[in-house]
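Help needed: design a sequence for this.
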């Protein structure tokens, strides 16, 4: 999964500006790494279904995070706190991951990433419509502009036009809801425990779905045996998912989210380069224009979110 375009995560509080340069560096390295995981998932999509790839992604996350969580937090890290919210977070990020991995099977990496980055706009709309947060006309305007950017990318006649474009949109919606749930546990769970619980619940949910689908004979949910030639690819996914997201979490602990949000959009640049180098995908000028619109509106929304946190917008 991509990194958070508007990072919000349950990290220990620090004074903003403690290590801004370090935070920017960590954020840049993290988001530049993550498209490699998406490219591997796209490659594996020729053999495995998105649910099975997503399941292995979370299994690997647990495998790499568990010893670190036990080392830094202790056995209490195994206890989900609060249970309902941690289960909800794991379910939402699992759904977002599967939508995204399904999208990269049929769409170019850069296009999938660009459409997914409407998530800050979706988050703003959810906050206003369902959480009662006050959103002024300027932020609503930025939301509409961001969706216009997405429509430019998925316009009729484009390579991504059609039902497939709904997959990264679904990922963006699930991810926005995941961020809402993550906000609710801020200060109630440490980062190591939260990462571990995300992996555990994500693996449990996807494992149950995969087993049920395989038993029912659903084609995309059939379990494909993992050969030795694929083990290394799943390990790469687990390493990048764990290291990349931990770097982003540490970055948010060191620098204000408004400073880091523009850095998050380097992920689109990385996805474009990797997509071209690995799969020969070249975005057209309309796609580039849509990316510019989405990125601009997303940066503005993030700026407003963090510039005026206690005032009506």
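Sure. Designed sequence:
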């Amino acid at each position: 999964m991509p990194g958070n375009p508007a990072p919000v995560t349950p990290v220990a509080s620090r004074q903003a500006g403690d290590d801004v340069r370090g935070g920017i560096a960590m954020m840049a390295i993290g988001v530049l790494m993550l498209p490699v995981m998406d490219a591997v998932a796209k490659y594996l999509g020729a053999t495995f279904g998105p649910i099975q790839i997503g399941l292995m992604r979370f299994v690997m996350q647990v495998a790499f995070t568990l010893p670190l969580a036990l080392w830094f937090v202790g056995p209490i890290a195994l206890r989900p706190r609060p249970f309902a919210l941690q289960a909800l977070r794991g379910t939402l990020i699992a759904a977002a991951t599967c939508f995204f991995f399904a999208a990269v099977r049929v769409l170019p990496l850069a296009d999938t990433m660009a459409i997914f980055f409407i998530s800050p706009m979706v988050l703003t709309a959810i906050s206003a419509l369902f959480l009662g947060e006050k959103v002024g006309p300027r932020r609503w305007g930025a939301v509409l502009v961001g969706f216009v950017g997405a429509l430019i990318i998925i316009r009729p006649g484009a390579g991504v036009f059609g039902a497939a474009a709904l997959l990264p949109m679904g990922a963006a919606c699930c991810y926005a809801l995941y961020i809402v749930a993550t906000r609710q546990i801020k200060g109630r769970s440490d980062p190591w425990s939260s990462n571990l619980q995300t992996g555990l619940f994500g693996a449990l949910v996807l494992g149950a779905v995969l087993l049920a689908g395989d038993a029912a004979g659903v084609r995309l949910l059939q379990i494909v045996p993992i050969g030795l030639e694929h083990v290394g690819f799943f390990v790469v996914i687990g390493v990048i998912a764990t290291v990349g997201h931990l770097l982003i979490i540490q970055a948010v602990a060191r620098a204000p989210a408004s400073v880091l949000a523009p850095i998050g959009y380097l992920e689109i640049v990385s996805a474009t380069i990797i997509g071209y180098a690995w799969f020969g995908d070249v975005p057209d000028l309309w796609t580039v224009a849509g990316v510019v619109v989405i990125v601009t509106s997303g940066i503005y929304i993030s700026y407003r979110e963090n510039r005026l946190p206690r005032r009506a917008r």
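The two ends are 30 Å apart (CA to CA).
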